[in-house]
Specification:
single chain; alpha/beta; Rossmann fold; OB fold (Dihydrolipoamide Acetyltransferase, E2P); five-stranded parallel beta sheet; 7 helices
Protein backbone atom coordinates (compact mmCIF):
# COMPACT_ATOMS: atom_id res chain seq x y z
CA UNK A 1 0.00 0.00 0.00
CA UNK A 2 1.14 3.54 -0.82
CA UNK A 3 0.20 6.28 1.64
CA UNK A 4 -0.01 9.78 0.16
CA UNK A 5 -0.22 12.85 2.38
CA UNK A 6 -1.62 16.22 1.27
CA UNK A 7 -0.63 19.31 3.25
CA UNK A 8 -2.26 22.47 1.93
CA UNK A 9 -4.32 25.20 3.59
CA UNK A 10 -6.85 25.28 0.73
CA UNK A 11 -9.65 22.72 1.02
CA UNK A 12 -10.35 23.06 -2.71
CA UNK A 13 -6.82 21.82 -3.46
CA UNK A 14 -7.40 18.77 -1.24
CA UNK A 15 -10.60 17.90 -3.09
CA UNK A 16 -8.99 18.41 -6.50
CA UNK A 17 -5.88 16.38 -5.70
CA UNK A 18 -7.86 13.54 -4.10
CA UNK A 19 -10.02 13.25 -7.20
CA UNK A 20 -6.98 13.14 -9.47
CA UNK A 21 -5.31 10.46 -7.34
CA UNK A 22 -8.40 8.28 -7.01
CA UNK A 23 -8.90 8.39 -10.79
CA UNK A 24 -5.52 6.69 -11.28
CA UNK A 25 -4.36 3.14 -10.54
CA UNK A 26 -0.84 3.24 -9.09
CA UNK A 27 -0.43 -0.53 -9.08
CA UNK A 28 -1.38 -1.02 -5.44
CA UNK A 29 -3.87 0.19 -2.87
CA UNK A 30 -3.58 3.92 -2.15
CA UNK A 31 -4.45 5.65 1.12
CA UNK A 32 -4.76 9.45 1.31
CA UNK A 33 -4.31 11.47 4.50
CA UNK A 34 -5.01 15.21 4.62
CA UNK A 35 -3.58 18.09 6.66
CA UNK A 36 -4.65 21.74 6.47
CA UNK A 37 -1.51 23.00 8.20
CA UNK A 38 2.04 21.99 8.95
CA UNK A 39 1.50 21.53 12.68
CA UNK A 40 -1.06 18.77 12.13
CA UNK A 41 1.27 17.04 9.68
CA UNK A 42 4.18 17.12 12.13
CA UNK A 43 1.98 15.66 14.87
CA UNK A 44 0.93 12.75 12.66
CA UNK A 45 2.53 9.59 13.99
CA UNK A 46 2.36 7.18 11.05
CA UNK A 47 4.68 6.87 8.07
CA UNK A 48 3.79 8.66 4.84
CA UNK A 49 5.34 7.49 1.58
CA UNK A 50 4.68 10.52 -0.62
CA UNK A 51 3.91 14.03 0.68
CA UNK A 52 2.27 16.68 -1.50
CA UNK A 53 3.28 19.87 0.30
CA UNK A 54 2.18 23.44 -0.37
CA UNK A 55 4.89 26.07 0.05
CA UNK A 56 2.75 29.07 1.02
CA UNK A 57 0.76 28.34 4.18
CA UNK A 58 -0.13 30.51 7.19
CA UNK A 59 1.71 30.13 10.50
CA UNK A 60 4.25 27.54 9.30
CA UNK A 61 5.76 27.87 5.84
CA UNK A 62 5.90 24.74 3.66
CA UNK A 63 9.68 24.98 3.35
CA UNK A 64 10.05 24.98 7.14
CA UNK A 65 7.64 22.04 7.41
CA UNK A 66 9.51 20.16 4.69
CA UNK A 67 12.83 20.75 6.42
CA UNK A 68 11.51 19.12 9.61
CA UNK A 69 9.78 16.27 7.77
CA UNK A 70 12.90 15.44 5.74
CA UNK A 71 14.84 14.85 8.97
CA UNK A 72 12.41 12.17 10.14
CA UNK A 73 13.19 8.48 9.96
CA UNK A 74 11.58 7.00 6.83
CA UNK A 75 10.99 10.51 5.49
CA UNK A 76 8.53 10.68 2.58
CA UNK A 77 9.24 11.72 -0.97
CA UNK A 78 8.24 15.39 -0.95
CA UNK A 79 6.45 16.83 -3.98
CA UNK A 80 6.10 20.60 -3.63
CA UNK A 81 2.90 22.30 -4.78
CA UNK A 82 3.44 25.96 -5.61
CA UNK A 83 2.79 28.84 -7.99
CA UNK A 84 6.00 30.56 -6.81
CA UNK A 85 8.82 29.39 -9.07
CA UNK A 86 11.19 31.80 -7.36
CA UNK A 87 11.11 29.52 -4.30
CA UNK A 88 12.21 26.37 -6.10
CA UNK A 89 15.79 26.91 -4.94
CA UNK A 90 14.67 26.78 -1.29
CA UNK A 91 12.80 23.56 -1.96
CA UNK A 92 15.95 21.96 -3.33
CA UNK A 93 17.58 22.61 0.04
CA UNK A 94 15.10 20.24 1.70
CA UNK A 95 15.67 17.58 -0.97
CA UNK A 96 12.24 17.98 -2.57
CA UNK A 97 11.72 15.10 -4.98
CA UNK A 98 9.63 16.99 -7.53
CA UNK A 99 7.66 20.20 -8.11
CA UNK A 100 4.10 20.58 -9.36
CA UNK A 101 3.02 24.09 -10.28
CA UNK A 102 -0.31 25.64 -9.42
CA UNK A 103 -2.86 25.71 -10.91
CA UNK A 104 -2.44 21.94 -10.79
CA UNK A 105 -2.58 20.00 -14.05
CA UNK A 106 -3.73 16.41 -13.52
CA UNK A 107 -1.20 14.84 -15.90
CA UNK A 108 1.71 16.70 -14.26
CA UNK A 109 0.64 15.67 -10.76
CA UNK A 110 0.05 12.03 -11.67
CA UNK A 111 3.41 11.75 -13.44
CA UNK A 112 5.19 13.16 -10.38
CA UNK A 113 3.44 10.65 -8.12
CA UNK A 114 4.11 7.75 -10.52
CA UNK A 115 7.80 8.62 -10.60
CA UNK A 116 7.86 8.67 -6.80
CA UNK A 117 6.00 5.34 -6.61
CA UNK A 118 8.67 3.75 -8.83
CA UNK A 119 11.28 4.42 -6.16
CA UNK A 120 9.39 2.14 -3.75
CA UNK A 121 8.94 -0.80 -6.13
CA UNK A 122 10.79 -3.88 -4.90
CA UNK A 123 12.22 -2.14 -1.83
CA UNK A 124 11.07 -4.71 0.73
CA UNK A 125 13.85 -6.77 2.30
CA UNK A 126 14.17 -10.55 2.01
CA UNK A 127 16.45 -12.93 3.89
CA UNK A 128 18.45 -15.66 2.15
CA UNK A 129 21.37 -17.92 3.05
CA UNK A 130 24.76 -18.75 1.59
CA UNK A 131 27.31 -21.04 3.25
CA UNK A 132 25.14 -21.09 6.40
CA UNK A 133 25.27 -17.29 6.70
CA UNK A 134 22.16 -15.10 6.56
CA UNK A 135 21.99 -12.12 4.19
CA UNK A 136 19.42 -9.40 3.62
CA UNK A 137 18.67 -7.94 0.20
CA UNK A 138 16.01 -5.75 -1.36
CA UNK A 139 13.60 -7.67 -3.57
CA UNK A 140 14.58 -5.67 -6.63
CA UNK A 141 18.12 -7.09 -6.39
CA UNK A 142 16.83 -10.60 -7.12
CA UNK A 143 17.43 -11.67 -10.73
CA UNK A 144 15.37 -14.85 -10.56
CA UNK A 145 14.37 -17.68 -8.22
CA UNK A 146 14.42 -21.34 -9.15
CA UNK A 147 13.10 -24.49 -7.53
CA UNK A 148 15.86 -26.94 -6.61
CA UNK A 149 14.46 -30.15 -5.12
CA UNK A 150 12.78 -29.24 -1.80
CA UNK A 151 14.21 -25.71 -1.56
CA UNK A 152 14.65 -22.64 -3.72
CA UNK A 153 17.73 -20.94 -5.09
CA UNK A 154 17.78 -17.15 -5.25
CA UNK A 155 20.07 -15.54 -7.82
CA UNK A 156 21.36 -12.11 -6.80
CA UNK A 157 24.06 -10.64 -9.01
CA UNK A 158 26.25 -13.56 -10.00
CA UNK A 159 25.77 -15.48 -6.75
CA UNK A 160 23.27 -18.17 -5.75
CA UNK A 161 21.65 -18.05 -2.31
CA UNK A 162 19.37 -20.61 -0.67
CA UNK A 163 15.96 -20.32 0.94
CA UNK A 164 13.54 -22.67 2.65
CA UNK A 165 10.67 -20.78 0.99
CA UNK A 166 8.76 -22.64 -1.70
CA UNK A 167 8.12 -20.92 -5.03
CA UNK A 168 4.53 -20.47 -3.87
CA UNK A 169 5.80 -18.67 -0.76
CA UNK A 170 7.98 -16.42 -2.89
CA UNK A 171 5.16 -15.75 -5.33
CA UNK A 172 2.99 -14.49 -2.47
CA UNK A 173 5.76 -12.40 -0.90
CA UNK A 174 7.33 -10.71 -3.93
CA UNK A 175 6.26 -7.40 -5.49
CA UNK A 176 4.01 -8.54 -8.33
CA UNK A 177 4.72 -5.36 -10.29
CA UNK A 178 8.24 -6.57 -11.12
CA UNK A 179 8.13 -10.35 -10.56
CA UNK A 180 6.32 -13.06 -12.51
CA UNK A 181 6.22 -16.84 -12.30
CA UNK A 182 7.14 -17.85 -15.83
CA UNK A 183 7.38 -21.60 -15.26
CA UNK A 184 6.58 -24.13 -12.54
CA UNK A 185 10.25 -23.89 -11.49
CA UNK A 186 11.07 -20.20 -12.06
CA UNK A 187 10.12 -16.69 -10.94
CA UNK A 188 11.87 -13.86 -12.79
CA UNK A 189 12.44 -10.16 -12.15
CA UNK A 190 11.34 -8.12 -15.18
CA UNK A 191 14.18 -5.66 -14.55
CA UNK A 192 16.74 -8.25 -15.67
CA UNK A 193 15.00 -9.40 -18.85
CA UNK A 194 16.75 -8.54 -22.10
CA UNK A 195 14.10 -10.02 -24.40
CA UNK A 196 11.33 -12.59 -24.51
CA UNK A 197 10.99 -15.08 -27.35
CA UNK A 198 10.21 -18.78 -26.92
CA UNK A 199 12.47 -18.48 -23.90
CA UNK A 200 13.50 -15.62 -21.61
CA UNK A 201 16.89 -14.09 -22.31
CA UNK A 202 18.34 -12.28 -19.31
CA UNK A 203 20.79 -9.39 -19.29
CA UNK A 204 23.23 -11.80 -17.62
CA UNK A 205 23.02 -13.93 -20.80
CA UNK A 206 21.28 -16.75 -18.91
CA UNK A 207 18.24 -18.31 -20.57
CA UNK A 208 15.10 -19.39 -18.70
CA UNK A 209 12.16 -21.48 -19.94
CA UNK A 210 8.63 -20.13 -20.33
CA UNK A 211 5.56 -22.31 -19.84
CA UNK A 212 3.31 -22.02 -22.90
CA UNK A 213 0.22 -21.51 -20.78
CA UNK A 214 1.89 -18.56 -19.01
CA UNK A 215 3.24 -16.81 -22.13
CA UNK A 216 0.28 -14.50 -22.82
CA UNK A 217 -0.03 -13.39 -19.20
CA UNK A 218 3.74 -12.89 -19.06
CA UNK A 219 3.72 -10.61 -22.09
CA UNK A 220 0.84 -8.53 -20.72
CA UNK A 221 2.56 -8.06 -17.36
CA UNK A 222 5.91 -7.33 -18.97
CA UNK A 223 4.42 -4.63 -21.21
CA UNK A 224 2.72 -3.09 -18.17
CA UNK A 225 6.04 -3.12 -16.31
CA UNK A 226 7.84 -1.60 -19.29
CA UNK A 227 5.31 1.23 -19.55
CA UNK A 228 4.98 2.04 -15.85
CA UNK A 229 8.05 0.97 -13.91
CA UNK A 230 11.12 0.76 -16.12
Amino acid sequence: MIKIGICDDELAIHNQVKKYILDKNFGEKTEIVSFLNGADLLEYGDTIDILLLDIVMPEMDGIDVGRLVSRQKNAPKIIMLTSMRERFKEAFEISAYRFVTKPIVQSELIQAILDAVKTFVGNSTVEVYRDSRKYGFQQKQIVYISKVQSRTEVIIGEKAYQSTYSLEDWEAALDERIFFRVHKSYIVNFSYIDRIEDKIYLTSEEILPVAKRRKNALMQKYIQYDLEFR
